[in-house]
Amino acid sequence: MNTPEAPDQQTSQSIETADCSSSSSQGLEMAAASATDGVAAAALSSVLQRVKQAAERSGRVPDRIRVVAVSKTKPVTILRQVYDAGHRCFGENYVQELIEKAPQLPEDIQWHFIGNLQNNKVKPLLTAVPNLAMVETVDDEKIANNLNRVIGNIGRKPLKVFIQVNTSGEESKFGVEPAGCLDLAKHVTRNCPNLEFCGMMTIGMPDYTSTPENFKTLANCRSDVCKALGIAEQQTELSMGMSGDFELAIEMGSTNVRVGSTIFGAREYPKKQTA
């Protein structure tokens, strides 16, 4: 399996200025990519090795663990380096950024949307990114219903989804409360034929000493859901673990880890400027 608006009307002069700004920004992107040529690919190799070691420590098969390369704010040139190294699974937090990047990269990429998804962004996302493989952040019936409806209307194949669970109880985190996880899973499986329920996702707390408790909560949610729905736990994924704690997450049963800064670095790359 290692395999997250419309421009204003401008005068001809402002368009020319914007073009110059865009060219300058693109030049900075290319310079940044050149300076880091091969670094992201090497970092990916290191991450995959750490995944393998964590899986082996817990008696698991490394190939059953998916690494989502979280590429938010990173330019297409850097993503292409990781793609050329053989990786195919990328994650984005922002709809507009994903819509802009996807057409510039090969169609065999498996995009995961891992940010909070607003209902008014569902149709643009599904229409513009036909190789969207997963939405990891379904956290209420309304967003599930909207995804289901739009998929039916545009005639694309069923979309894989995770239910996002707020296991830490933090107000800053999105996600259904653990107590509501089963009801949402029942709704998705019974009332949303265009969605394929694949498992559950959580975001651990920044203080990694308390993260194991969050991960245990998600595993317990999976057990309850699988028992109630008659689904084998081995067929239901756990998406937990990020750059700071993905090895611990794997040891605790995660099948899907989201790794960004460890692969791409924490550096923010230049964005295109507008007049």
UniProtKB/TrEMBL annotation:
Residue span, Alanine racemase N-terminal domain: 51-267
GO molecular function: pyridoxal phosphate binding
Swiss-Prot/TrEMBL keywords: Pyridoxal phosphate
Residues modified to N6-(pyridoxal phosphate)lysine: 72
HAMAP family reported for this sequence: PLP_homeostasis (MF_02087)
Family: Belongs to the pyridoxal phosphate-binding protein YggS/PROSC family.
Protein name: Pyridoxal phosphate homeostasis protein
Organism: Salvia divinorum
